[in-house]
């Protein structure tokens, strides 16, 4: 896993944080810079005061100037004065033109004002002669930066908060979109929609959440298959049980009426045995289908196992010829003797049943690099090509099988396949050139052995 989701989240967060720091710093400096200058209309007012003071000074009416200054100070609650700045150089030194041009007793109205100083600055409006100045303390209502606290609050709190909320929303949408789809899919699956899938809804997304969606789809597919298998198994089992139950019901009715009791009691016993075997096989098949067990605890000689099964089959089918070609020994480990015995017995009995009396069943066992290949060939009618795989489906029977063996229930080969697969092998069906069916079973010598190609 490349932690793609980590980088998807880390990228916006890192970039957003850097941009946020830069924007806050830039806007803070820019805002403070713009707020450090006296407003234009206040500058004009101060200049008008300077012009009035210069006009009264040039008129030579000092009393009128004094009265005006007194009225201005009282009205604005400030200090104001008109002064001269005659600077006399000493020890033969001279005043440079730059000094004479830029010398001031106070601040020019167009200069920047330091917002963090407690005292208001003194403003200097120089008269035309260059030596007389109108000095006035900047009135409080003219001081710039009145909205600096509010601007700082916006820049340092409101703006970062807004950006963080936006980033949180982006991340929330990035995470909750797929999670919401997973929630809806899980809810739909729990309500019975077994075909619901999530990965296709995420488009080209490729991260941990898409991997979670793929895992959910795999889980849903496996679970859906198991549920459908169980449903089919229950439906087929109920269908198969209906016939023997009907026969038992009819036999019990006859017994209750006293009709030929000795004839119907064995029939009831036979039907009960049939149902018991059917239920046991169905339960075993359900266990193999749902649990997918790995049967790997036994070590055995496959030759001895097959020999014993052949002897039992000869006793049951004395009219058949069982031709065996087995090695002296065939040791395997990490398997299940019970599962293999039941699988081989089911296949061999099936071959004997469909082979006419007097016919031959050939049993051969050969070793290959990783396991043993068992072939069982019969001289029966065979199976249509399109049904070679269907015969391993639970409760499936060909039309001929239903006619020739009405007491069968179609679980033998299905059980055989699942038992062989549980031990690490496989089974398949094919046709003989001379007619009849060839069943091929492959068993690994040990569970570490790799499965060979089934078509080989």
Total number of distinct structural domains: 4
> Shape, please?
rod-shaped
Annotation field: number of helices = 11
Largest sheet: 5 strands, mixed
Sequence-ordered SSE layout with sheet pairings:
Blueprint: H1 4-35, H2 40-59, H3 62-76, E1 80-84, H4 97-102, E2 122-126, E3 132-137, H5 148-190, H6 208-256, H7 261-291, E4 298-301, H8 302-316, E5 321-325, E6 331-335, H9 337-354, E7 360-367, E8 371-377, H10 399-404, H11 412-422, E9 426-431, E10 437-444
Parallel strand pairs: 5-7
Antiparallel strand pairs: 1-3, 2-3, 4-6, 7-8, 8-10, 9-10
Helix pairs in contact: 1-5, 2-3, 5-6, 6-7, 7-11, 8-9, 9-11
Defining traits:
single chain; 456 residues; alpha+beta; Beta-Lactamase; Helix Hairpins; 4 domains; five-stranded mixed beta sheet; three-stranded antiparallel beta sheet; 10 strands; 54% helix; 13% strand
